[in-house]
Design goal:
binds zinc ion; Immunoglobulin-like; single chain; Aminopeptidase N; Neutral Protease, domain 2; four-stranded mixed beta sheet; TAT_signal; about 450 residues; zinc; 2 domains; hydrolase; alpha+beta; eight-stranded mixed beta sheet; binds tryptophan
Length: about 450
């Protein structure tokens, strides 16, 4: 199929620009193979938005075999003669657009779908992909693993930044958020934990099926379907948030006293950051020694081992900063990590630990050659740096500078305005700066230029 179509189908020889002027449909063209993220050029896809994912999965931990069916409900944002999804590995056994079988081809993570009939701009459509195989994690630019990571009793499933595509076909970029339904079948005795609310669980023929619903929009990387032998506890907080905890019994002695504090941590964070943005919450504590990090999977963070309280505070803070308010570009990652780290400092300060100022001072005392000053948090330079020390620690330092510049009342008003105005949506650094200036009535350009974008160690603390 030709990539460049010079004439519209409708108007024959009339040039495209004139056709557009006359309100005629543009000729259908291919959606892009990425959303334009400079650090992950193939992540996500252009030309459509996914509104809902309905994922039906069956996993056998002993053979590590996954069988899946993904039904995506999407809407074209341009007329499309083909479009891409991201899917890494696995074998596709069927693919339909609407009721029609569609042609597809695969190259690396790009799954290119050619529907039988071109889609017009604004058209709702459904894509059904059936697939199977042995999912494997992807290796990130920084060498860490993400995606579907098998464990000795199931799988640890965490997709930041790229791993969602290792277990379902997705528009794999935080720019495109959707609601999710999960139906996951595992052998009896194993538990499958996803995001949101547990709708039901039922055992038949030696297998148990868990149904989960994530109704608030979610970025693909925040989806989980972690499977293992877990001890489950459920409760409801005073604010009506449904808590579901799944803890690997081998981690329970260390994890339980921490996980138990989730309701009080969420209540404390709600006072500072605004109302908790989701209906459900909880913790998944797995034993996944080869992972080396926790992830703020939406509503229910997943931990590779028993977390300490500070880590629980961090992942919980991400529910506001990163999950409810999402990135539009991985370059802005400090909006997630700087904020979640600053939440840890604030928690310490208000619970008998060091003041945030003391934490800031100790960091500022590090020599100019320290890793902390290697690159600016607002411009990490590449995907290999998005989880580097400057993003976390110097990102938090930038927020502390903001707090001392505007005062506590204004600072927390800024945070609450941010989470309220961008709830279930997105935010950029430029929008945060504009909001901080509006709420404080101060020119904060210099502050952000130095602390978020400046190269090297700032000359004054
Ligand atoms: N976002 C996670 C956190 O800070 C960390 C994380 C996710 C991570 N994926 C990673 C860290 C890959 C290093 C490598 O809570
Ligand atoms: Zn984090």
């Amino acid at each position: 199929m030709p990539r460049v179509v010079r004439r519209t189908f409708v108007l024959g020889t009339v040039p495209v620009a004139l056709a557009a002027l006359l309100g005629a449909a543009a000729p259908p063209s291919a959606g892009t193979a990425g959303v334009g993220d400079p650090y992950f050029p193939l992540a996500g896809n252009g030309g459509y938005h996914v509104h809902h994912y309905d994922l039906t999965l069956r996993y056998d931990p002993s053979s590590k075999h996954l069988a899946g069916k993904a039904v995506l409900t999407a809407r074209a944002t341009q007329s499309l003669n083909r479009f891409n999804l991201d899917l890494n590995g696995l074998k596709i056994t069927g693919l339909k657009v609407g009721r029609d079988t569609a042609d597809f081809s695969r190259r690396g993570q790009e799954l290119t779908v050619t529907p039988r009939k071109a889609l017009h701009r604004g058209q709702w459509f459904r894509v059904t992909v059936t697939y199977q195989g042995t999912p494997a994690p992807v290796t990130d630019p920084d060498g860490s693993l993400d995606g579907w990571i098998p464990t000795d009793d199931g799988a640890f499933v965490a997709g930041e930044p790229q791993g969602a595509m290792t277990w379902f076909p997705a528009n794999n970029h935080p720019k495109d958020k959707a609601s999710y339904d999960f139906t996951i079948t595992v052998p009896d005795g194993r538990t499958a934990v996803a995001n949101g609310v547990l709708l039901g669980q039922r055992s038949e023929h030696g297998r148990t099926t868990f149904r989960w619903r994530q109704s608030e929009p979610m970025a693909a990387y925040l989806a989980t379907a972690t499977i293992g032998k877990f001890k489950v506890t459920q409760s409801t907080t005073r604010d009506g948030i449904r808590i579901y905890n799944a803890v690997d019994p081998r981690e329970a002695a260390k994890a339980d006293p921490v996980v138990k504090q989730l309701p009080s941590v969420l209540a404390w964070e709600s006072k500072l950051f605004g109302p908790y943005p989701f209906k459900a919450a909880g913790s998944i504590v797995d034993r996944a020694p080869n992972v080396g990090y926790a992830l703020e999977t939406q509503t229910r963070p997943v931990y590779d081992r028993a977390p300490d309280l500070s880590t629980l505070v961090h992942e919980s803070a991400h529910q506001w900063f990163g999950d409810s308010v999402s990135l539009t570009s991985w370059k802005d990652i400090w909006l997630n990590e700087g904020f979640a780290t600053y939440a840890e400092w604030l928690y310490g300060e208000q619970h008998g630990g060091d003041s945030a100022q003391k934490t800031f001072d100790a960091l500022y005392a590090r020599p100019a050659t320290d890793d902390l000053w290697e690159f600016p948090p607002g411009d990490p330079g590449s995907g290999a740096n998005i989880f580097g020390t400057p993003v976390y620690a110097r990102g938090a330092m930038a927020l502390h500078k903001l707090r001392t510049a505007v005062g506590d009342r204004t600072f927390f008003r800024i945070l609450r305005a941010w989470t309220a105005e961008h709830r279930d949506g997105h935010g950029t650094t430029a929008q945060f700066v504009a909001l901080a200036e509006r709420e404080s009535g101060k020119d904060l350009d210099g502050l952000f230029r130095t602390w978020v974008y400046g190269q090297g160690k700032p000359s004054t603390p």
